[in-house]
Amino acid sequence: MLPREDNDLLTLVGPDHPMGKLMRSYWIPALLASEIPEPDCPPVRVRLLGEDLVAYRDTQGRVGLLEEHCAHRGTSLFFGRNEECGLRCIYHGWKYDIDGKVLETPAEPAGSTLKDKVRQVAYPCKEAGGMIWTYMGPKEKQPLLPNYEWMTMPAEKIYVSKSYQDCSWLQGLEGECDSSHLSFLHRSFTGDRPRGGGDGELYAADTAPTLEGIETDYGIRMLSCRKVAADKVYLRVSNIVMPCHGFIPTGGVKGNPEGYTIHSHVPMDDEHSLRFNIHFRRNRTIEPDERQHDEEIGPDFVKIRNLRNDYLIDREKQRRENFTGMGPIFLNHDACATETMGPIYDRSKEHLGVSDMTVIGVRKFLLNAARTVAAGKEPPHVIRTKEQTDVRHVACIATTIPASRDPKTYVVEQLKKDKYWEA
Ligand code: FES
Ligand SMILES: [Fe+2]
Question: pTM of the entire structure?
Answer without folding.
Answer: 0.96
